[in-house]
Specification:
Strand content: 5-15%
Distance between the termini: 46 Å
Radius of gyration: 21 Å
Number of helices: 16
Length: 416
């Protein structure tokens, strides 16, 4: 679209919200549904800037050169209660849930803090948050505060309760990590038929229904069929998540993680499936090393805001007891002055000098990241994988093809 046409389009479809940053602004569009990063010149064209925003008092910089003024989204683990018992569960959820879990009052306070900070989205999950009797009420409160609530569910529990409040959410994705027998190979039990029934029931009630797929060595060869399934069910998206060694998933990591060969084939495999079945695909930030392996045009990645680990910057997470994390899979950071960082006090922690540790010090890179032309975008890959495999989240992602080729891993990955 020509630049002038973009301006005309934006004026015809004014942004729902805008948040000013040093580089310009983050604009939330309704048509299409998207967050768009624009420089100061474009912001002046499409947003009523008024007096120079406080964020513009500093010199203009490129996106990514500085931490954002607040995260774009927060991933909230509303409960650790779930009866599924998946072998790769990133939290270690159980039917009993965990101690000191927050309820509606505490999470409402957290939503208020996130709204005050300027957060655009919350991703609600668990455990299985569909079993919570106050889930719809919390989603309503988020909308009242200008935040779009999205939801991830296994589809295995609480479906009737979720269907009663389905209209209160933006996007709802059902976790399906394979079809039929592959689902059982990844999750450790046969739940595909129930998850598929939830997909069909939710799609009958709402258009914005998709699936989350944790990609493992067991389901990688089935990705084309998974995209075909999503197309057949008329779903809005397929979101692909890299398997991370977190929660029970730490014990299952060696059995579930993709092979190096699969990681190198990830981008062409996904592009082929998305084009063939004409369905939107999203991949999580930890896949950026696998994208960079194919040497895409760096300026294109920058324009599309494709970044690697964005924990503690573009996004944050929270455990079921409110403890703040850099992302859903990371451990809570150390306490500051005796106080553990909590999601309802995000603003106070966000600007702390040592906030989020290695998630923000990625510029202090080891080789081969230090000399990689994609480093400012990739940011060294997944900190959770590095921490588990190498014992140090600041070291280069050991599953990155470039790191493997460089021979930079200090701990040898198991041969699969």
């Amino acid at each position: 679209m020509a630049w002038i046409d973009r301006v005309r389009f934006a004026r015809k479809h004014p942004p729902r919200r805008a948040r000013f940053e040093r580089f310009g602004a983050i604009v939330q569009l309704t048509v299409p549904r998207a967050l768009v990063f624009v420089d100061r010149a474009m912001a002046k064209r499409i947003v009523d800037v008024g007096a120079p925003p406080a964020a513009w008092r500093a010199s203009e910089t490129e996106l990514g050169e500085h931490v954002l003024s607040a995260p774009l989204e927060a991933h909230l683990q509303l409960t650790n209660r779930c009866g599924a018992g998946c072998t790769g569960c990133y939290t270690g959820a159980s039917p009993q849930g965990g101690p000191n879990e927050w309820g509606l009052v505490e999470w409402t306070r957290a939503i208020d803090a996130l709204a005050d900070a300027g957060v655009f989205h919350v991703a609600l999950g668990g455990g299985e948050s569909a079993v919570l009797p106050w889930l719809g009420e919390l989603a309503d409160h988020a909308r009242r505060r200008g935040i779009i609530p999205n939801l991830t569910t296994s589809g295995l529990e609480g479906l009737d309760r979720l269907l009663a409040v389905v209209d209160r959410f933006g996007q709802i994705n059902v976790s399906i990590d394979g079809l039929d027998a592959t689902y059982a190979a990844v999750r450790g039990f046969d739940g595909f038929a129930r998850a598929d029934a939830a997909v069909r029931a939710l799609r009958a009630a709402k258009r914005e229904i998709g699936i989350n797929v944790v990609v493992t060595r067991h389901n990688f060869a089935e990705l084309d069929q998974i995209f075909a399934y999503a197309s057949e069910r008329r779903l809005s998206e397929v979101e692909l998540l890299r398997f991370k060694p977190s929660g029970r998933g730490a014990r299952a990591y060696n059995d579930q993680r993709c092979t190096d060969e699969q990681h190198r084939a990830f981008l062409p495999t996904v592009l082929a499936a998305a084009r063939k079945h004409r369905i939107r695909v999203k991949v999580d930030c930890s896949y950026t090393p696998m994208l960079a392996h194919h040497k895409p045009e760096r300026t294109l990645l920058a324009e599309l805001a494709v970044f690697g680990c964005t924990g503690g910057d573009f996004l944050v997470g929270a455990k079921a007891d409110g403890r703040l994390t850099a992302c859903s899979f990371a451990s809570p950071p150390p306490a500051l002055e005796g106080e553990r960082p909590r999601i309802d006090a995000l603003a106070a922690y966000w600007s702390a000098p040592d906030a989020f540790g290695a998630f923000r010090t990625w510029r202090d890179a080891h080789e081969p990241c230090a000399s990689c032309e994609y480093h400012s975008l990739c940011r060294g890959g997944c900190k959770v994988v590095s921490s588990h495999v190498l014992g140090d989240p600041a070291l280069p992602d050991p599953e990155c093809p470039r790191v493997i080729d460089h021979g930079a891993t200090r701990v040898r990955l198991p041969v699969l």
